[in-house]
Write a sequence for this structure.
């Protein structure tokens, strides 16, 4: 026998279920008076630096039906490419931008919307710059372990072309599943859980 | 928060055989909501290593007391009063201080305060069903609530969820983000539940079952259940050569 490694196992995930709103966005659901406001609902204020954008989209299942009970979280750098996190070693991020947002999909339409800013570029592990991107985490009934993906900007062709993560995608036809298309007030990003357009999800 | 120097290493690779698979047909909703293509493996960049951290300023006085945080003045939620306590640890066994833990649950009758809820059991006017707290310097947390009831759900015609509390846990990195459920020791519904059984490994299921903890009860007030949660740990950065700027 040898010595044990003494490493613990990560707690296994369980689905967020259909009632995730109670715990994560209770005010959205109409449970008022417990928490002042829903965490992550508002990402920007008047002082936040950077270009305002709205990110809208849907999470679509294998039958083409949008999920109406999903919850999404995004995590992104500020306009200078710094994360507002104690683990950020490169400098202080914009104090008026937490970089984290949380939104449910609409209970009727299935549409989600984040009002945020366009992030700056952050480095890859080898120091090369990544293209601007927004990190997504998606949970819902029927999703056993939260799904990680990234949203890139379709109108950042030059940066996207040199992005080390996008470069790794073997099936080039799938790159477009990570690209958000410009709209009047921001970007449109639909997430497909299955099918020909299945979004690329990451094992991070 | 105590630790002045935050770790910045990459996380241990997630053991996806310990977690439930995405496609688990006995849990029917997963069939059309499970990605079918392989995940793209990505070593952690600064985007995954960093994550949001919350201060105590977000917390209200009764956020960790579900018996009173929705109740009318002078009233309280109906049910078996319990304390749920434990530690948030990382895979290296170290307490994770200063992280947000959120929880939600059905009331003592098994009914959720939710628009889409279809179970006939009664709502408790004094029970909202949500709470949150931030771990202390050792990674410890505690809250008071009533024991949730089991409830039926439309999957098989006679599927019942064991009593459970939903947990959402933040670490320091977005890659640590986790949602899971806590079950109660001795509940005969646990092995019957299709959602529990999305987890293949019996030992992994046991990791979600909280034991009764009679040493931590409050006499004449509440029994206690202990529930430790483990988040992904980080590799040591001591021997890693990282490029400038990361
Ligand atoms: Fe539940």
């Amino acid at each position: 026998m040898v010595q044990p490694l003494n490493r613990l196992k990560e707690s296994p995930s369980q689905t967020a279920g259909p009632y995730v709103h109670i715990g994560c966005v209770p005010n959205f659901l109409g449970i008022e008076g417990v928490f002042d406001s829903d965490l992550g609902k508002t990402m920007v204020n008047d002082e936040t630096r950077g270009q305002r954008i709205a990110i809208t989209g849907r999470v679509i299942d294998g039958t083409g039906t949008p999920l109406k009970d999903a919850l999404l979280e995004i995590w992104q750098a500020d306009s200078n490419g710094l994360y507002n996190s104690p683990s950020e070693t490169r400098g202080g991020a914009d104090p008026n931008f937490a970089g984290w947002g949380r939104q449910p999909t609409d209970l009727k339409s299935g549409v989600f919307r984040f009002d945020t800013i366009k992030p700056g570029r952050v480095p890859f592990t080898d120091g090369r710059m990544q293209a601007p991107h927004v990190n997504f985490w998606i949970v819902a009934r029927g999703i056993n372990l939260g799904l990680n993906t990234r949203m890139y900007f379709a109108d950042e062709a030059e940066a996207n072309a040199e992005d080390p993560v996008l470069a790794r995608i073997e099936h080039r036809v799938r790159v477009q599943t990570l690209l958000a298309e410009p709209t009047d007030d921001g970007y449109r990003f639909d997430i497909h859980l299955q099918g020909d357009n299945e979004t690329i999800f990451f094992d991070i | 928060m105590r630790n002045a120097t935050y770790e910045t290493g990459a996380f241990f690779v997630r053991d996806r055989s310990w977690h439930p698979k995405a496609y688990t047909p006995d849990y029917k909703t997963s069939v059309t909501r499970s990605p079918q293509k392989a995940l793209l493996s990505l070593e952690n960049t600064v985007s995954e290593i960093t994550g949001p951290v919350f201060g105590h300023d977000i917390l209200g006085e009764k956020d960790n007391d579900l018996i009173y945080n929705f109740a009318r003045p002078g009233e309280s939620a109906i049910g078996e009063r319990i304390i749920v306590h434990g530690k948030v640890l990382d895979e290296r066994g170290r307490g994770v201080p200063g992280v947000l833990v959120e929880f939600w649950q059905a009331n003592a009758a098994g009914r959720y305060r939710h628009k889409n809820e279809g179970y006939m059991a009664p709502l408790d006017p004094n029970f909202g069903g949500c709470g949150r707290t931030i771990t202390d310097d050792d990674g410890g947390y505690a809250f008071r609530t009533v024991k949730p009831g089991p409830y039926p759900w439309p999957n098989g015609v006679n599927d019942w969820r064991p009593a459970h509390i939903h947990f959402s846990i933040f670490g320091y990195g977005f890659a640590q983000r986790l949602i899971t459920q806590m079950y109660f020791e001795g509940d005969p519904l646990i092995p019957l539940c299709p959602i529990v059984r999305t987890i293949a490994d019996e030992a992994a299921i046991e990791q979600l079952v909280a034991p009764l903890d009679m040493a931590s009860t409050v006499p004449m007030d509440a029994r206690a259940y202990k529930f430790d949660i483990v988040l992904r740990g980080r590799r040591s950065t001591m021997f890693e050569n990282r490029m400038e700027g990361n």
In short: The pocket of fe (iii) ion is lined by residues A 17, 19; B 161, 164, 166 (CB under 6 Å). Helices of chain B lie at 30-33, 46-49, 202-206.
